[in-house]
Design goal:
CATH architecture of the largest domain: Alpha-Beta Complex
Number of domains: 5
Strand order of the largest sheet: 12-11-13-14-15
Number of helices: 29
Shape: elongated
Radius of gyration: 40 Å
Distance between the termini: 120 Å
Number of strands: 15
CATH topology of the largest domain: DNA primase DNAg catalytic core, N-terminal domain
Strand content: 5-15%
Length: 659
């Protein structure tokens, strides 16, 4: 229908926007200025506690500084009440006392017919409600009582009963002057194929009125009392009032509850909704016997940007979740998503609430899983990914999923999350962190000229448990200190192959006691002697001793060491390698001297014992200077070592005197 020029301007001029919006919000009077028509409230379109929703009566315009919703009175009714444009205009015109322009005859006829059918549906609601209280409805009342539905809940959802008679409703409503054609058009009755009198669609069923967002009854759902009925649940057929794919059970009340801050819950059926509402979860809706459609999903997102979809934990429930995910992927936008709760198998929301209480349901809602969790589970569960080809197939399916996401930002974030999950699955982030792994398992050094970003001021913090338990933190233990020193020698040699030729003899002679270190040293020396270098060296070592190599280079103590990070500084590497070799030789030499001295003590050796221990002290100190100038500071606490050995000498002398 086309409106004459100036009609909408006149309508907006007669409409006070704050009066329309005020039916959905609670104004913040401390922030609002009523005299100037300046109003503030929490936004009715998204959850918030602060008043970021602004209405300007003088301009007839609203805007939310949180979710950026904006528009005029017509737009507000369209978004808040799910009205069409003409429905919003008609509502505002009626409230403003304006007469709607004459419609074309066909449109007026359709509007009148829908109004008439809505009145027929209201008559049916009242009749079904009455039948529930009769003798014929006794079994239905018992069923509702067993399901825990109080009288107040039955009244709230206007639950009724259709008796087991072929034409009970038909005769009752036609007896009130309602034409038979209206009963058929409303979906309450159906005509037989032979052209006889219409018969009732709902017979021997508990009936649930289905209302649109404006509260008009547009259809019914019926639950069979006969366990042998062909369909346990039956919905009205699609009519001029009812479009199954564009309707939700409990739409209007759920939207109001979500506007008050409750979490929107999407469940499978009427009884699920009623059970949740009875437990205090009033923002609950259900599709009408079919999988959620694209239109229904848009309606759900208009109610809440991140609803929780609650499905049975069986195979059928998982299939329904996956169908919904596939539907939602191309429609995702920033702030619009889905979360999922899979109920224990064999339980529906009513069973869970009655068995474990409202708190159990609240815990499940709090633990709802994001959509990507179920998507990843679907793509990986039950798949054996033990070959490059199978992993490539997984990568292909993930890329296809990403291509279905239209929003570039959402697609990027999903890609990053897939990458992280893939790294966890295959364990490729063993060292260096995601995205830093090199060809040899993540031990590629920094390149010349590489600089770190500016550092923040140092703030002392308590050490983490993993830090306190690290090898480096426990290095006062002699075997661990030796292990780290051996690891440092090998890491320097691996990062700087030029040092291998320079220190070939020392590397070949040094005793490496840690598991894997000897194999790694031998492989390195053999490769360098064969003239292998550069990338070929790393590839060869990965093939021969890859596990030992990755274990070595994954140590944080090694990765952060200057000679390893600075792969271009061969002089620094040579100095550090000489130092580490000297320290290790000094420790091993002192151990041998002490071992011999202890043997002499135990066998009451001659007076040369003291002299030999003294020589061990000197040897320990001299060894630290064999590779560098005497003035070099190797970082060794020689005074402490001398004192320690001197104490051994004194104790040994005391033992000899006593013997």
């Amino acid at each position: 229908m086309s409106l004459p020029p100036g009609f909408l301007e006149e309508l907006r001029a007669r409409t006070t926007l704050s009066q329309i919006v005020g039916r959905k919000v609670i104004w913040d009077m401390r922030k609002s200025n009523q005299a100037k028509g300046d109003w503030w409230a929490p936004c009715p379109f998204h959850q918030e506690k602060t008043a970021s929703f602004h209405v300007d009566d003088r301009k007839g315009f609203y805007y939310c500084f949180g979710c950026h919703a904006k528009g005029d009175a017509i737009g507000f009714l369209k978004d808040a009440e799910n009205m069409s444009f003409m429905e919003a205009v008609e509502t505002l015109a009626r409230e403003a006392g304006m007469t709607m322009p004459a419609q074309d005859p066909k449109a007026a006829e359709r509007a009148d017919r829908r109004s008439e059918l809505a009145r027929v549906m209201d008559e049916a609601v009242r009749w079904f409600r009455l039948q529930l209280s009769t003798g014929a409805g006794a079994e239905a009342r018992d069923y509702l009582s067993r399901r825990g539905l109080s009288q107040s809940m039955q009244d709230r959802f206007e639950i009724g009963f259709a008796p087991d008679g072929r034409q009970a409703l038909f005769q009752a409503l036609t007896g009130r002057g309602i034409p038979a054609d209206h009963l058929v058009a409303a979906g309450l009755c159906a005509r037989p194929d032979d052209g006889g009198q219409p018969y009732d669609r709902f017979r021997n069923r508990i009936v649930f009125p289905i209302r649109d967002a404006r509260g008009r009854c547009i259809a019914f759902g019926g639950r069979a009392m006969d366990p042998n009925a062909r369909a346990k649940y039956l919905n009205s057929p699609e009519t001029e009032l009812f479009d199954k794919g564009r309707s939700l059970f409990n739409h209007g009340p759920a939207r109001e509850a979500a506007g008050r801050g409750q979490q929107l819950i999407v469940v499978e059926g009427y009884m699920d909704v009623i059970a949740l509402v009875g437990a205090g979860f009033e923002a609950a809706v259900a599709p009408l016997g079919t999988a959620i459609t694209e239109d229904q999903l848009r309606m759900i997102w208009r109610i809440h940007p991140e609803p929780v979809v609650m499905l049975d934990g069986d195979t059928a429930g998982q299939r329904a979740a996956h169908r919904l995910i596939d539907l939602a992927l191309p429609m995702l936008e920033a702030g619009l998503s889905l979360r999922f709760v899979m109920l224990p198998e064999g339980m529906d929301p009513d069973d869970l609430i009655r068995a474990q209480g409202r708190e159990a349901m609240a815990r499940l809602l709090a633990e709802a899983r994001p959509m990507i969790d179920l998507l990843w589970q679907r793509e990986t569960e039950g798949r054996v990914l033990d070959s490059p080809e199978r992993r490539a197939a997984l990568d292909k399916s993930l890329r296809e999923l990403l291509r279905r996401i239209k929003d570039p930002s959402i697609r990027t974030h999903y890609g990053e999350e897939f990458k992280r999950l893939r790294q966890e699955l295959f364990g490729v982030a063993r060292s260096g962190g995601p995205g830093r792994a090199g060809r040899a398992g993540g031990w590629q050094p920094a390149q010349p000229g590489e600089r770190r970003a500016g550092r923040a001021p140092f703030i002392p913090v308590a050490p983490l448990p993993e830090t306190r338990n690290s090898l480096l933190a426990r290095a006062s233990d002699q075997p661990i200190e030796d292990y780290l020193r051996e690891a440092m020698i090998l890491a320097i040699a691996l990062t700087h192959p030029s040092c291998v030729e320079r220190f070939e003899t020392e590397l070949a002679d040094v005793e490496l006691r840690a598991a894997g270190h000897d194999r790694l040293r031998n492989a390195l020396l053999a490769a360098v002697r064969a003239g292998v270098g550069g990338e070929d060296l790393r590839d060869r070592l990965m093939k021969e001793v890859g596990a030992d190599l990755e274990k070595l280079m994954s140590l944080p103590y090694i990765r952060t060491a200057p000679p390893v990070r600075k792969a271009w500084d061969d002089e620094l590497a040579a100095m550090c390698l000489a130092e580490e070799l000297a320290k290790l030789e000094a420790r091993r030499g002192a151990e041998e001297e002490l071992a011999e001295a202890v043997e002499d003590i135990e066998s009451l050796a001659n007076e040369g014992l003291t002299w030999r221990l003294s020589q061990a002290v000197d040897a320990r100190n001299r060894a630290g200077r064999t590779r560098l100038d005497d003035d070099s500071d190797l970082g060794e606490d020689r005074a402490a070592m001398s004192n320690w050995l001197q104490e051994l000498v004194e104790k040994a002398s005391e033992i000899k005197k006593k013997r």
